[in-house]
Amino acid sequence: MSKVTPFLMFNDQLEAAIAFYTATFPDSEIKNVARTGQDGPITSAEFVIGGQPFMGYNGGPYFKFSEGLSLFVDCEDQEEVDEYWNKLVSAGATPSQCGWITDQFGLSWQIVPRRFMELISDQNPTKVKAVMAAMLQMVKLDVAALETAYNNA
After folding, report:
1. Domain identity same for 50 and 92
2. pLDDT in tens, 62-88
3. Which residues contact 104 (CB under 8 A, 6 or more apart)?
4. How many domains does the chain have?
5. Which end of the chain, N or C, is less surrounded by CB atoms within 10 Å?
6. Which residues of the chain have pLDDT under 70?
């Protein structure tokens, strides 16, 4: 286990959440689970999503996720953005804006193409401002539209 590991409190949906996350993202696995009784529901688990270790617990209705914590998904290109976005939406996620989406368990994700991060790192503030303005109008991030904004600035 890492020295610091994110710990997620679910409202009795831990088993479904880790099954979905480990099936959706490569380099994912369920490392360990604790159950209530031999065949009872999972109460806690150690798991890996996309190479990042997590711990999870079924904490009940007292705990809710907020957008104050989100998981950032670094996508190689538009195809990868589309792949994760579509998997999340198909499973019941709610798109927000600017590449953010909240999954069926209430956890927020940022599905971000690597090219966006490159464009906003440009030394030309006019180009960066144009890319940011374009991004703020989007729900799912669109690499071609971001490139157009950059090139037209």
Report:
1. no
2. 889 999 999 999 999 999 999 999 999
3. 20, 91, 92, 93
4. 2
5. N
6. 1
